């Protein structure tokens, strides 16, 4: 797939209307490097919401569509130098697959929020569509866009930790400690509805982030797991707390914890990796710091910054000198910037730069495995191996 087009990639967005959280994040990330231009949207099923969102964003009213189906048809009719080139999918989970499938088959690139799909079967179908098509598919596993997560991966890959033995990853939140879905929270309502979220609750929403982080940083794939799922809030239809033991193909063992009922926690994603020569520790709420400890008892604090001695990928994701904070939006923007570059280059970058459908499929294999293991009273289940590109 070759491309001779230059300039910002023209973007259409499905979802992300007024009252939504993640759509505004996608738009801010896409704007940061000037590599994207938002030209169209189907922001909400509510016509007034969609129209008002488009007006706030300065879009042509004719390109604010009543539905995602209308958007794909309408944009396909535009002149080639004006129509959207990529569709951002920022809807609840149950719509990720049908929109992505239709957009790819209509000739649009896709940048999707995670998880890739609602079910493993859908993820397998989407993987087939991506593999036989010419359009690119990106998945916003945001935390892989942080510079010091890239540096953590670099430390492991370079052998600084030696042979990896242990991986501990946890993602703790407290915002669903009460029945928020019954108290008017739109975000909680769809995330706890299996028809829209999928069968996994916390494991699908944040557990997939923890799982992907563990595999990407360690450089190893989970081959089997033993899980326990809990639902602490009465009447809730999906899990809100989970833990699993992990076995990796490189010989490491691990522990994964994913919970949205840890009262008082905000966004406690962190990972620790230990080898026979050293260990590392990264926390999302202090993202510019990576702690590295060597076997001789010495500890080094590594910091993000364009003036720091970091690996190539980490440096490419730093935007300012050390001491000038960079965070969530910048990590998100790194993925958008690299995806735009892949589109303009006419080739899919590796998963080292932009998470793709392989990671999306792995995420759904994880969710399926967690549910299967729990149903078997925590028995060990195998996780199918896939290319994680």
Total individual domains: 2
Q: Strand order, biggest sheet? A: 13-12-11-10-6-9-8-7-14
User: What is the CATH class designation of the largest domain?
Assistant: Alpha Beta
User: What CATH architecture of the largest domain would you give?
Assistant: 2-Layer Sandwich
Main beta-sheet strand count, sense and barrel state = 9 strands, mixed
Helical proportion?
25-40%
> Low-confidence parts, pLDDT < 50 over ≥5 residues?
none
Structural class: alpha/beta
Lay out the secondary structure.
Blueprint: E1 9-15, H1 22-31, E2 36-42, H2 47-56, H3 68-76, E3 86-90, H4 96-105, E4 109-112, H5 120-132, E5 137-139, H6 147-157, E6 164-172, H7 186-191, H8 194-197, H9 202-218, E7 222-230, E8 241-248, E9 253-259, E10 268-275, E11 278-283, E12 289-294, E13 299-303, H10 312-316, H11 328-345, H12 357-375, E14 381-382
Parallel strand pairs: 1-2, 1-3, 3-4, 4-5, 6-9
Antiparallel strand pairs: 6-10, 7-8, 7-14, 8-9, 10-11, 11-12, 12-13
Helix pairs in contact: 1-11, 4-5, 5-12, 6-9, 9-12
What does this structure look like?
The chain is of the alpha/beta class and 389 residues long. It folds into 2 domains: 9-142, NAD(P)-binding Rossmann-like Domain (Rossmann fold), CATH 3.40.50.720; 146-321 and 356-382, 2-Layer Sandwich (Dihydrodipicolinate Reductase, domain 2), CATH 3.30.360. The protein is built from 12 helices and 14 strands. It has helices at residues 22-31, 47-56, 68-76, 96-105, 120-132, 147-157, 186-191, 194-197, 202-218, 312-316, 328-345, 357-375, and strands spanning 9-15, 36-42, 86-90, 109-112, 137-139, 164-172, 222-230, 241-248, 253-259, 268-275, 278-283, 289-294, 299-303, 381-382. A 9-stranded mixed β-sheet has the order 13-12-11-10-6-9-8-7-14. Helix 1 links the parallel strand 1 (9-15) and strand 2. Helix 1 crosses helix 11 (328-345).
